[in-house]
Amino acid sequence: MRPSSSSRANLRRHQPSWALVVLILVACLAHSARALHFYLEDNKEKCFMEVLPQDTAVMGVYRAEEWSAPTQQYIENLSLGIQINVEHVETQSVTVSKKGPSFGKFLFTAAHSGDHKICLSTNTSGWFNTSKVRLHLDIIIGDAAGTEVDPSERISDIQFRIRDLIHRAVDIRREQQYQREQEREFREFTDLVNRRVVLWSIVQMIVLGLACAWQLRHLRSFFMAKKLV
Question: Which of 25, 112, 141, 218 would suit a FRET pair with 179, their CA atoms being 20 to 30 Å apart?
């Protein structure tokens, strides 16, 4: 027996959409977080740069571990503190300046486009304190960094993936806008340099022509004075 047209319609209706499957796969493969770890010495900052478009949300999740000589391994020390400083390089405006515990997170939104310097250091005190600290840091850039799902809000996994894709699309659009602004500034700077080069070449030609005319006139008067002409 062949299935009826209504049965085939029901089968098509219950089949998953290929577009939705592709979106979910892209969301699974895409990563908006970068994880790293590095070592800190007492009262010495570790800084790194992030190029951020304007109004980009950034969240950093960190966890510090201190070297323990008796156990010969890194362990958590709740008395350890971490100093966090975020500064916009061009305007030198301080975005974040806080003292946090040995583990936690920090949030900020880029008020200006461009390079942002993120610095972390230990805020331990003591003249002879030579502890060695290993710091784990995860940086999440984009709208997903400032978005927290309400526990009372019940959403399915597909809805969560779609929401995440929307945030990523907004981030990509903002990044493209920032790249267009950078290209426009670079093009304007290149045009300005080209105009100055052309102007300088014209000035050099004028100066060279005046120097040649003066030299010819001087030689003519010299030859006439010597009665060589």
Answer: 25
Q: How confident is the model at residue 155 (pLDDT cuts 50, 70, 90)?
A: low
Region for residue 126 given its phi and psi (left: phi exceeds 0; alpha: psi -120 to 50; beta: otherwise): left
Q: What is the identity of the amino acid at 170?
A: V
> Where exactly are the structural domains of the chain?
35-141, 155-228
**pTM reported for the whole predicted model:** 0.56
Q: What pLDDT score was predicted for residue 222?
A: 78
Distance CA 100, CA 155 (A): 33
Taking alpha carbons only, the member of 173, 113, 178 closest to residue 143 is 173
Q: What is the 3-state secondary structure (H, E, C) of 136-147?
A: EEEEEECHHHHC
User: b/e string for 103-130 if b means 16 or more Cβ within 10 A?
Assistant: beebebebebbbebbbebbbebeeeeee
Report the phi/psi class of residue 3: left, alpha or beta, with left for phi > 0 and alpha for psi in -120 to 50: beta
H or E stretch covering 103? strand 103-109
- pLDDT at residue number 51: 86
Axis crossing angle, helix 18-29 with helix 157-225, rounded to the nearest 10: 70
Spatial separation of the C-alpha atoms in residues 174 and 56, rounded to whole Å? 8
**CATH topology assigned to domain 35-141:** Jelly Rolls (2.60.120)
Tokens at residue 206, please?
A: 């004028």
